[in-house]
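User: Structure with MRU, tokens only please.
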Amino acid sequence: MKIGGVAYRSIWLNADGATVEVIDQTLLPHRFAVRSLMSLADAEHAIKTMIVRGAPLIGATAAYGMSLAMAADPSDSMLEEAHGCLLAARPTAVNLRWALDEMTAVLKPLAPAQRKQAGYQRAAAICDEDVALNRAIGEHGLKLIEAIAAKKPKDKTINIMTHCNAGWLATVDFGTALAPIYLAHDTGINIHVWVSETRPRNQGASLTAWELGQHGVPHTVIVDNAAGHLMRNGDVDMISVGSDRTAANGDVCNKIGTYLKALAAKDNDVPFYVALPSPTIDWNLPDGKNIPIEERNGLEISQISGRNKHHGISSVAVTPQGSVVANPGFDVTPARLVTGLITERGVCPASTEGLLGLYPERASNDATIGKPLQVPRRIKSEGVPSRVEAEKISTRRRRARNLA
Ligand code: MRU
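Assistant:
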């Protein structure tokens, strides 16, 4: 994707062949800055603090994190340690586990002396594969947009709504949910995108709006709560969102608020599509019930930050001091609300049959399909202060005392 006319990916290896470069997404849209990751700790920090975010990019960064670990210490114990600490960095996006398992499968059988080079090679390949998968998703999704356009008068705009950021910033390039939009725009289809701000971290308002703007795609930012109103008014032709983890039955876990959009879409007959590359499918989960939902820092709710008049970044409080907040980062949209899954192999119904129709090798080879994993339902982000939980507990205790 181009930024100010220059082609970028969201992650790349520096010319020194050792340092990994990423775009610092915590500074966008106010500042464009590139950060260097030089160690396993840097990669872990980048994922935890959301310098990089979005399921495919988290996976790609973790892959490079393993390479950086191998460059420093190619031992078996480091291989295990790197896998463990990166896996714990964020819990919901399954691409993280997928990428770490891919890296381990390549690195473990090798002699330590071979691991550094092999690590960088496999991480680079994972990035290239992600770009190819997303390009294919774009092409399949484009056909859906073309079909909608064919039913409208030529000069009419196609209005597509998206949530969070499932664009090129969330992947290595192209994006998932936005890939068909970019292709449609490039082929001359009159596209306009409704960008929901995506409280609390505003990935829509900050990141999606920014990258659509860089590509020249007309868009309008709305508050999350405006989505149902726009659908009811007939102002939305299609919804396209991404996924952090898709269960084997087509249930989809994505940024908090996705489920509400799907409900409103169903009520208003708006097609609701989820775009996902296959590393986002968790074949081990029969349905979305046991997908671990990240519980994020309550400060994301009680405060809001943005650019101040001095061009610095400031935070201001939104809630009264002492109000308890809860911040689940993701929700699960049941398959019955999803019109179709857009994958690199084509579009399919959100169902076990639909997914196996595109990935038949999974039906015969993987005996684990449908076996539930023992995972906790809600997981607190690593490194996040337990203030919110502590506040909740003390409120419950206060209430219990008052009732006693
Ligand atoms: O918390 P984030 O910003 O990592 O959440 C990202 C999303 O929810 C995206 O929609 C999802 O990862 C799909 S990205 C192609």
